[in-house]
From TrEMBL:
This is Tryptophan synthase alpha chain. One of its GO terms (molecular function) is tryptophan synthase activity. Its EC number is 4.2.1.20. Tetramer of two alpha and two beta chains.
Length: 271
Protein backbone atom coordinates (compact mmCIF):
# COMPACT_ATOMS: atom_id res chain seq x y z
CA UNK A 1 0.00 0.00 0.00
CA UNK A 2 1.30 3.45 -0.89
CA UNK A 3 -0.49 6.65 0.14
CA UNK A 4 -3.60 4.59 0.85
CA UNK A 5 -3.54 3.06 -2.65
CA UNK A 6 -3.73 -0.72 -2.91
CA UNK A 7 -1.04 -1.30 -5.51
CA UNK A 8 -1.13 -4.10 -8.04
CA UNK A 9 1.59 -6.71 -7.78
CA UNK A 10 0.09 -8.84 -10.53
CA UNK A 11 2.25 -10.20 -13.30
CA UNK A 12 3.20 -7.47 -15.74
CA UNK A 13 1.56 -7.94 -19.13
CA UNK A 14 0.32 -5.82 -21.96
CA UNK A 15 -3.06 -4.33 -21.16
CA UNK A 16 -5.81 -3.37 -23.56
CA UNK A 17 -6.62 0.09 -24.84
CA UNK A 18 -9.69 0.19 -22.60
CA UNK A 19 -7.59 -0.62 -19.53
CA UNK A 20 -5.09 2.07 -20.47
CA UNK A 21 -7.85 4.63 -20.97
CA UNK A 22 -9.42 3.74 -17.62
CA UNK A 23 -6.07 4.19 -15.87
CA UNK A 24 -5.58 7.50 -17.65
CA UNK A 25 -8.96 8.73 -16.36
CA UNK A 26 -8.04 7.52 -12.88
CA UNK A 27 -5.20 10.05 -12.83
CA UNK A 28 -7.87 12.76 -12.73
CA UNK A 29 -10.43 11.11 -10.42
CA UNK A 30 -10.14 9.30 -7.12
CA UNK A 31 -12.51 6.60 -8.41
CA UNK A 32 -14.52 6.07 -11.59
CA UNK A 33 -18.23 5.23 -11.71
CA UNK A 34 -19.87 2.57 -13.83
CA UNK A 35 -23.67 2.67 -14.04
CA UNK A 36 -25.98 -0.11 -15.18
CA UNK A 37 -29.04 -0.23 -17.41
CA UNK A 38 -31.21 -3.14 -18.52
CA UNK A 39 -31.84 -2.27 -22.14
CA UNK A 40 -35.53 -2.07 -22.96
CA UNK A 41 -36.68 -1.58 -19.36
CA UNK A 42 -38.81 0.26 -18.67
CA UNK A 43 -38.42 1.42 -22.29
CA UNK A 44 -35.74 2.66 -24.66
CA UNK A 45 -36.70 6.30 -24.14
CA UNK A 46 -36.09 6.04 -20.39
CA UNK A 47 -32.85 4.14 -21.03
CA UNK A 48 -31.62 7.00 -23.19
CA UNK A 49 -32.64 9.63 -20.64
CA UNK A 50 -30.83 7.68 -17.92
CA UNK A 51 -27.64 7.50 -19.98
CA UNK A 52 -27.88 11.21 -20.69
CA UNK A 53 -28.04 11.71 -16.90
CA UNK A 54 -25.07 9.39 -16.45
CA UNK A 55 -23.03 11.57 -18.79
CA UNK A 56 -24.14 14.82 -17.17
CA UNK A 57 -23.43 13.52 -13.67
CA UNK A 58 -19.90 12.33 -14.35
CA UNK A 59 -20.38 8.59 -14.88
CA UNK A 60 -17.43 7.11 -16.77
CA UNK A 61 -18.59 3.67 -17.91
CA UNK A 62 -22.01 2.30 -18.81
CA UNK A 63 -22.97 -1.35 -18.42
CA UNK A 64 -25.76 -2.18 -20.86
CA UNK A 65 -27.42 -5.45 -19.90
CA UNK A 66 -29.19 -7.29 -22.72
CA UNK A 67 -32.45 -8.81 -21.42
CA UNK A 68 -32.47 -12.59 -21.02
CA UNK A 69 -35.09 -15.02 -19.71
CA UNK A 70 -32.78 -16.76 -17.20
CA UNK A 71 -30.36 -14.17 -15.79
CA UNK A 72 -28.62 -16.42 -13.28
CA UNK A 73 -26.54 -13.66 -11.64
CA UNK A 74 -29.52 -11.39 -10.98
CA UNK A 75 -31.77 -10.93 -7.98
CA UNK A 76 -35.55 -10.32 -7.99
CA UNK A 77 -35.40 -6.67 -9.12
CA UNK A 78 -33.31 -7.32 -12.22
CA UNK A 79 -35.12 -10.59 -12.89
CA UNK A 80 -38.41 -8.69 -13.08
CA UNK A 81 -36.88 -6.02 -15.29
CA UNK A 82 -35.50 -8.64 -17.67
CA UNK A 83 -38.90 -10.32 -17.87
CA UNK A 84 -40.73 -7.04 -18.46
CA UNK A 85 -38.31 -6.03 -21.22
CA UNK A 86 -38.83 -9.36 -22.97
CA UNK A 87 -42.61 -9.16 -22.54
CA UNK A 88 -42.50 -5.80 -24.32
CA UNK A 89 -40.94 -7.57 -27.28
CA UNK A 90 -37.41 -6.25 -26.84
CA UNK A 91 -35.04 -7.96 -29.29
CA UNK A 92 -31.27 -8.21 -29.43
CA UNK A 93 -31.32 -6.33 -32.72
CA UNK A 94 -33.16 -3.44 -31.04
CA UNK A 95 -30.62 -3.47 -28.21
CA UNK A 96 -27.74 -3.32 -30.69
CA UNK A 97 -29.37 -0.40 -32.49
CA UNK A 98 -29.86 1.38 -29.17
CA UNK A 99 -26.26 0.75 -28.11
CA UNK A 100 -25.00 2.17 -31.39
CA UNK A 101 -26.98 5.35 -30.73
CA UNK A 102 -25.51 5.58 -27.22
CA UNK A 103 -21.91 5.12 -28.35
CA UNK A 104 -22.46 7.72 -31.07
CA UNK A 105 -24.06 10.32 -28.80
CA UNK A 106 -22.06 10.03 -25.56
CA UNK A 107 -18.29 9.85 -24.85
CA UNK A 108 -18.71 6.97 -22.40
CA UNK A 109 -17.01 3.58 -22.22
CA UNK A 110 -19.89 1.22 -23.07
CA UNK A 111 -19.86 -2.43 -22.04
CA UNK A 112 -22.41 -5.16 -22.72
CA UNK A 113 -23.47 -7.56 -19.98
CA UNK A 114 -25.28 -10.67 -21.17
CA UNK A 115 -25.34 -14.47 -21.05
CA UNK A 116 -23.74 -16.98 -23.36
CA UNK A 117 -27.03 -18.29 -24.76
CA UNK A 118 -27.60 -14.87 -26.33
CA UNK A 119 -24.26 -15.15 -28.13
CA UNK A 120 -25.00 -18.71 -29.24
CA UNK A 121 -28.39 -17.70 -30.63
CA UNK A 122 -26.93 -14.72 -32.48
CA UNK A 123 -23.71 -16.47 -33.48
CA UNK A 124 -20.74 -15.96 -31.18
CA UNK A 125 -18.33 -14.49 -33.71
CA UNK A 126 -21.05 -12.40 -35.34
CA UNK A 127 -22.20 -11.01 -31.98
CA UNK A 128 -18.70 -9.98 -30.90
CA UNK A 129 -17.96 -8.52 -34.33
CA UNK A 130 -21.21 -6.52 -34.28
CA UNK A 131 -20.58 -5.30 -30.74
CA UNK A 132 -17.14 -4.07 -31.71
CA UNK A 133 -18.40 -2.38 -34.86
CA UNK A 134 -20.93 -0.28 -32.92
CA UNK A 135 -18.43 0.92 -30.32
CA UNK A 136 -18.86 -1.56 -27.46
CA UNK A 137 -15.55 -1.77 -25.60
CA UNK A 138 -16.06 -4.87 -23.48
CA UNK A 139 -18.33 -7.82 -22.70
CA UNK A 140 -19.32 -9.24 -19.33
CA UNK A 141 -20.63 -12.78 -19.89
CA UNK A 142 -20.66 -14.50 -16.47
CA UNK A 143 -21.26 -17.99 -17.87
CA UNK A 144 -18.54 -17.82 -20.55
CA UNK A 145 -15.73 -19.70 -18.84
CA UNK A 146 -12.28 -19.42 -20.44
CA UNK A 147 -11.79 -23.20 -20.47
CA UNK A 148 -15.03 -23.75 -22.40
CA UNK A 149 -15.42 -20.67 -24.61
CA UNK A 150 -12.53 -20.67 -27.07
CA UNK A 151 -14.64 -19.23 -29.89
CA UNK A 152 -15.76 -16.32 -27.72
CA UNK A 153 -12.29 -15.39 -26.48
CA UNK A 154 -10.80 -15.74 -29.96
CA UNK A 155 -13.49 -13.46 -31.38
CA UNK A 156 -12.90 -10.89 -28.64
CA UNK A 157 -9.19 -10.86 -29.41
CA UNK A 158 -9.77 -10.54 -33.15
CA UNK A 159 -12.34 -7.73 -32.80
CA UNK A 160 -10.52 -5.88 -29.99
CA UNK A 161 -13.50 -6.23 -27.65
CA UNK A 162 -12.43 -6.93 -24.08
CA UNK A 163 -13.75 -10.06 -22.31
CA UNK A 164 -14.32 -8.92 -18.72
CA UNK A 165 -14.23 -11.71 -16.13
CA UNK A 166 -15.75 -11.87 -12.66
CA UNK A 167 -14.23 -12.91 -9.33
CA UNK A 168 -15.78 -13.09 -5.86
CA UNK A 169 -14.38 -13.27 -2.31
CA UNK A 170 -14.78 -17.05 -2.58
CA UNK A 171 -12.62 -17.39 -5.69
CA UNK A 172 -9.52 -19.42 -4.72
CA UNK A 173 -6.14 -17.79 -5.26
CA UNK A 174 -5.14 -20.11 -8.10
CA UNK A 175 -8.43 -19.47 -9.90
CA UNK A 176 -8.23 -15.73 -9.29
CA UNK A 177 -4.74 -15.59 -10.76
CA UNK A 178 -5.94 -17.53 -13.81
CA UNK A 179 -8.97 -15.27 -14.37
CA UNK A 180 -6.96 -12.10 -13.73
CA UNK A 181 -4.61 -13.13 -16.53
CA UNK A 182 -7.51 -13.87 -18.90
CA UNK A 183 -9.58 -10.75 -18.29
CA UNK A 184 -9.13 -7.64 -20.40
CA UNK A 185 -10.20 -4.05 -19.78
CA UNK A 186 -10.93 -4.58 -16.11
CA UNK A 187 -11.46 -7.28 -13.54
CA UNK A 188 -15.04 -7.29 -12.19
CA UNK A 189 -14.84 -7.91 -8.45
CA UNK A 190 -18.22 -8.93 -7.05
CA UNK A 191 -18.06 -7.79 -3.43
CA UNK A 192 -19.98 -10.82 -2.21
CA UNK A 193 -21.26 -14.17 -3.35
CA UNK A 194 -24.84 -14.37 -4.62
CA UNK A 195 -27.06 -12.36 -6.93
CA UNK A 196 -27.50 -8.66 -7.57
CA UNK A 197 -29.67 -6.42 -5.42
CA UNK A 198 -28.79 -7.35 -1.83
CA UNK A 199 -26.79 -4.98 0.37
CA UNK A 200 -23.10 -5.57 1.03
CA UNK A 201 -21.34 -4.82 4.30
CA UNK A 202 -18.07 -3.19 3.27
CA UNK A 203 -15.32 -3.72 5.81
CA UNK A 204 -12.07 -5.56 6.51
CA UNK A 205 -13.16 -8.63 4.55
CA UNK A 206 -13.75 -6.45 1.48
CA UNK A 207 -10.35 -4.82 1.87
CA UNK A 208 -8.69 -8.23 2.12
CA UNK A 209 -10.55 -9.39 -0.99
CA UNK A 210 -9.48 -6.34 -2.97
CA UNK A 211 -5.88 -6.78 -1.84
CA UNK A 212 -6.03 -10.27 -3.35
CA UNK A 213 -7.51 -8.87 -6.56
CA UNK A 214 -4.74 -6.28 -6.76
CA UNK A 215 -2.13 -8.95 -6.13
CA UNK A 216 -3.11 -10.87 -9.24
CA UNK A 217 -4.53 -8.25 -11.60
CA UNK A 218 -2.56 -5.99 -13.93
CA UNK A 219 -5.80 -4.48 -15.21
CA UNK A 220 -8.00 -1.95 -13.38
CA UNK A 221 -10.48 -3.44 -10.93
CA UNK A 222 -14.15 -2.57 -10.57
CA UNK A 223 -16.28 -3.43 -7.55
CA UNK A 224 -19.97 -4.18 -7.84
CA UNK A 225 -22.81 -5.96 -6.00
CA UNK A 226 -24.26 -3.96 -3.13
CA UNK A 227 -23.12 -0.36 -3.67
CA UNK A 228 -26.09 1.57 -2.32
CA UNK A 229 -24.82 4.70 -0.57
CA UNK A 230 -22.23 7.45 -1.06
CA UNK A 231 -20.32 6.00 1.91
CA UNK A 232 -19.88 2.75 -0.04
CA UNK A 233 -18.18 4.63 -2.86
CA UNK A 234 -16.03 6.62 -0.44
CA UNK A 235 -14.99 3.36 1.20
CA UNK A 236 -13.76 2.06 -2.16
CA UNK A 237 -11.61 5.11 -2.92
CA UNK A 238 -7.94 4.00 -2.93
CA UNK A 239 -9.10 0.37 -2.96
CA UNK A 240 -10.77 0.09 -6.37
CA UNK A 241 -10.51 1.89 -9.69
CA UNK A 242 -14.24 1.69 -10.44
CA UNK A 243 -17.40 1.61 -8.32
CA UNK A 244 -20.20 -0.23 -10.15
CA UNK A 245 -23.78 0.78 -9.36
CA UNK A 246 -26.73 -1.25 -10.58
CA UNK A 247 -29.77 -2.27 -8.57
CA UNK A 248 -29.84 0.90 -6.48
CA UNK A 249 -30.13 3.02 -9.63
CA UNK A 250 -33.19 1.06 -10.71
CA UNK A 251 -34.71 1.30 -7.23
CA UNK A 252 -34.21 5.08 -7.23
CA UNK A 253 -35.65 5.42 -10.73
CA UNK A 254 -38.79 3.50 -9.80
CA UNK A 255 -39.25 5.35 -6.51
CA UNK A 256 -38.20 8.91 -7.40
CA UNK A 257 -37.91 9.15 -11.19
CA UNK A 258 -35.04 10.73 -13.08
CA UNK A 259 -34.86 13.67 -10.66
CA UNK A 260 -33.99 11.24 -7.89
CA UNK A 261 -31.48 9.49 -10.13
CA UNK A 262 -29.68 12.76 -10.80
CA UNK A 263 -29.46 13.58 -7.09
CA UNK A 264 -28.27 10.07 -6.27
CA UNK A 265 -25.56 10.08 -8.94
CA UNK A 266 -24.26 13.48 -7.88
CA UNK A 267 -24.10 12.27 -4.27
CA UNK A 268 -21.78 9.43 -5.27
CA UNK A 269 -18.93 11.64 -6.45
CA UNK A 270 -16.36 11.69 -3.64
CA UNK A 271 -14.54 14.76 -5.00
Amino acid sequence: MKNGRLLSSGKARNISNLAQEILEKRKRKSILLMAHQIVGYPDFETNYEMIRLFHECGVDLVELQLPFSEPIADGPLFLKANQKALERGTTIEQCLDFAQKVTRDFPLFCIFMTYYNILLQFGVKQFVETAGSIGIRGLIVPDAFPEESDEYFAACKQEHVDPILVVTPYTPDTRMEYLANKTEGLLYCAARKGVTGAPTSFGDATTDFLLRCRQYSSTPIGVGFGIQHPDDVRYLVNKSDIAIVGSTLLNVLEAEGTTGVREFLLSLRPE
